[in-house]
Structures are given as structure tokens and as C-alpha cells.
Amino acid sequence: MTGEGRRIVAFYEGSAPDDCGRFHEDVLRFDDERLEYVHNFIQWLFPLPERSGAQPTAPILDDAAIEAFHTRPQLRAALRRSLDRMLAFYGFAWSGERVEKSAAFPLRSGNWLQIGNHNHLRLTRMLRSLTLLGEREAALALFAVLSEIYDEQRRTESKRISERSYNFWMSAVKS
Fold first, then answer.
1. Domain boundaries of the chain, sorted by first residue
2. CB neighbours of 63 closer than 8 A, spacing ≥ 6?
3. Cα atoms in the Cβ-side hemisphere of radius 13 Å centred on 18
4. What is the mean pLDDT of the chain?
């Protein structure tokens, strides 16, 4: 495992902070406003094998880190807590094995459900990271609700999700 992969695993184990001195549980306690306006945490919660253009100091996944998530249930459980926090931020909740709109969706979606919103990039990152790190079913559940919203907005011609964003989401779960 490279130093970067070790940093991600240590962050998820709770034994080391991110570049800003925040531990995993600290980030999960961010309120919704902080999740919206702070832009240097998503790369830690949902790491990828590629360097982030927005946060080039954030670590990247290596094969050993990916393997650690696949073989260590506690890492995947922590990843699911990251997902759960972000689902609440977007106005979603689990219903069994499905992700659905929560009662907070009308309020929360106003923050991200608009063409060109930076949260569409975050959602792409989340879907791909979940898929790579052994939580493919969770990624597919999130993609399913995003697909429903995309289909709804296409029927009403209220363009809130671009075809480009939707295609990125679809590609992310096929990784």
C-alpha cells in the first residue's frame, strides 16, 4: 500500500486525520451548511484512484487500499456511514435496500437539484468510489433514485440534471 492508500485506510480506521486535521467522525458531524460550502472533504470520504483537480493534495486509492476495503468489513461500514451522511444531505434515506426521497427532500434538493451544480460532480465521485470499494449495491441504490429523478424531470421538461451528469453517473456505477 502506498503512503496515499495508507492515509485513506488510516482515515477510515479513525487512527489518522485528513489534511485539515479532521477525523472521519468529525467530517460526519458537519452540518448541512458546512457540507455544502466546504469543498475539501469529499475526496477523503469517497476516494478515487485519480488525483482530484479541485484538491490535488487529497490522497488517491491504490490497489492495496481498494483490497483493504474489500476484505475489512469495518472499513466498508465506515464508508456506509459516509454514504448515509451524504444521503441525508441530499434529502435521501434508506428504505430497506432502496434509497428513496426522504421527507426532507423538497428542502434539501433545492440546494443541489439544478443544472451545473457542483454536487453533481460529488455524486459522480460517490457512485464510483462506492463501486470501487466494495459497496456496489449501495451505489446502484443511489443511482436508481437519481435515475428516477432524472426521468421525472425529463417528463416535466424542468431541466435540473443534464444528460451529461446523468451519463457520468451511469458510467460511475459501471466501473
1. 3-173
2. 5
3. 23
4. 95
